[in-house]
């Protein structure tokens, strides 16, 4: 996924869903977010919405994501 606040939109979310369906993922899959806050937010929301919720692991790679978005409880 691209990073940056401007990519937090339905178009990006649909790309995630399209790739997940194309890969034939099912409810046993796990979405892994390796990146900063935007990546974590998008991946977390996608994991919560895909097939009514799949497992989610967040690996924050920026200081801001480590101290803010990955522990905020908004996603996942």
UniProtKB/TrEMBL annotation:
Coiled coil: none annotated. SUPFAM superfamilies: Dehydroquinate synthase-like (SSF56796). Keywords: Amino-acid biosynthesis, Aromatic amino acid biosynthesis, Lyase, NAD. Residues 1-76 form the 3-dehydroquinate synthase N-terminal domain. It comes from the Eukaryota. GO terms for molecular function: 3-dehydroquinate synthase activity. The keyword NAD applies. GO terms for biological process: amino acid biosynthetic process; aromatic amino acid family biosynthetic process. InterPro entries: Dehydroquinate_synthase, DHQS/DOIS_N. This is 3-dehydroquinate synthase domain protein. It comes from Oryza nivara (Indian wild rice).
